[in-house]
Structures are given as C-alpha cells and as structure tokens.
Design a protein that fits this description.
Structural class: alpha+beta
Low-confidence stretches: none
Radius of gyration: 40 Å
Order of helices and strands: HHHEEEEEEEHHHH
Shape: elongated
Strand content: 5-15%
Mean pLDDT: 89
C-alpha cells in the first residue's frame, strides 16, 4: 500500500512538471495548452521552433568544423616548426646522443664514450680504441687525436688477493675485442657525420626558415572559417526560419493574448 502511494505521488509530481513545461511552451488558457481545438496552432508553433533549431544546429556544426580545422592546421604548423627546431638544436649541439652499447664501465653513445671509473666523457670524433691483452686484465686504450685519452680495464682472471665475497665480473677476450670494434666503427661514423655537419645544419636551418614562412594551409583554414561565419550571419535559411517563427508566435499571441517563447 505504501509503495503504491509512493508510485502515485511520483506520477503526480511527474505529471505536474510535464504540465508546467507544456504551459511554458504554449502559454494562455488551459485549453490553449492542452485542448485538441488548438492542436494545429500548437503544431505550427512546434514546427517553426524545430525548423529554426535545425538551421542553428547546422550552423553550429559548420562553425565547429571550420574552427576545428583551424586548430588542426595551427597544431600541425607548430609541430613541424618544433620538430625542425629540435633537429637544428641537435645538429648545433649533438651532445652524447643515444646509447649504443656498454661493457663493464664503458658506455658507447652515438657521439661519445663514457669511460670509468672516473666517468670521463670522450668525444668519438678522432677517437681510437686499441685492445691490449694482459695476464690478468685486458685493457682498451681510448686515444684522442691530441694523444690524451683513457684506459678501461677488463679483468679476465680473478685476483688471488681478492676474497670470494669481493669477486668481480670477468670478461673474455672476444667480447672486449668486439667492443673495441664497436667503438672504432662508431668513431668512423662520427667522422662522416662531422664532415657533413655544416652542410646538414645549413640545410635544416633553411628548412626551418621555410616552415616558419609557410602558412598556406593555416591561412586557408582561417579564411574558410571566416567564410563560414559570414555565411552563417547572412544565411537566408535562418532569416526565413526566424521570420516564420516570429509570425507563428505572433499568431499565437493573437489567439491567446500571450507571447510564446522561441
């Protein structure tokens, strides 16, 4: 019983809300809002409202699409410039580059070798790696063009004076020689990179300057957006739909004495 009463109350509340909403759309006497005698007038008013809303919806969609295209072209333009700026910056200051390989305390990068235990960074340009076999420790000598450099040690036999708890990794000759080859190959690639760096940098800077000036697609999208807004402002469909709704509202006022909302 209590549940039935609750349902009945909800239905009454819902009906009251619907009636109030209906009265707001079709103001006047109760008959004007609900009686079948005025169904045609209500239908004409509803149709005029829907027509105007449909035109406005088309306009909003067209304007949104045009604005979205401007945003897309702007982002593409900025992304292209940003990518070229990063490429120019990397050519101006290549840094160490990405890591290529590592062995023991040596880390090989695109443009440098990080040597341990001091953690010195040796540029690859002009660098030469040379393997040296030792009784207990193999060595890689990294020699710079001016004669300086570093030495990396790779033990291949345990130190008798070292306790088992302090054991270190042992390296065989083949893997050390392989790493020597990797360093020398990377140094050769670095030499070729440096030889063409000035020309590559000039070309990339020219490409960046051209990208900054090239706003053809962005300008076209902005013009299209302007054209869409101008069309919306002067679209005869909306003027006609608005005039029709105004006339229909006026007719409703003549009948009911109340001016209905749009």
């Amino acid at each position: 019983m209590v549940e039935a009463v609750r349902v009945l109350l909800l239905l009454m509340v819902g009906a009251g809300i619907w009636a109030a909403w209906r009265r707001s759309l079709f103001p006047g006497a109760w008959a004007h809002t609900f009686h079948t005698a005025y169904a045609e007038e209500r239908a004409l008013l509803t149709q005029a409202r829907r027509h105007l809303r449909a035109v406005d919806k088309d306009h909003r969609r067209a304007e949104k699409e045009a604005a979205g295209q401007v945003k897309t072209e702007h982002e593409k333009h900025e992304q292209r410039i940003g990518r070229l700026e990063r490429e120019v910056a990397l050519l101006q200051n290549p840094g160490q580059g990405t890591e290529l390989a590592r062995l023991g305390g040596l880390v090989l990068y695109e443009h440098a070798v990080a040597a341990s235990p001091e953690g010195r960074v040796l540029p690859l340009h002009g660098l030469r790696a040379r393997f040296d076999r030792g009784d207990r420790v193999h060595s890689l000598y990294l020699t710079k063009p001016n004669g300086g450099g570093d030495r990396a040690k790779f033990p291949h036999r345990p130190d008798p004076a070292t306790s088992p708890q302090d054991s270190v990794r042992l390296f065989d000759e083949e893997e050390v020689r392989d790493f020597e080859m990797k360093i020398n190959e990377a140094a050769a690639q670095e030499k070729a990179f440096r030889a063409g760096l000035a020309e590559q940098l000039a070309g990339k800077q020219e490409e960046l300057a051209g990208a900054r000036k090239d706003t053809t697609r962005l300008t076209a999208a902005e013009q299209s957006h302007t054209d869409v807004r101008d069309h919306i402002r002067t679209d005869p469909r909306r003027q006609k739909a608005l005039a029709n709704l105004t006339a229909t509202r006026s007719q409703w006022q003549d009948i009911t004495g109340r001016w209905p909302p749009r």
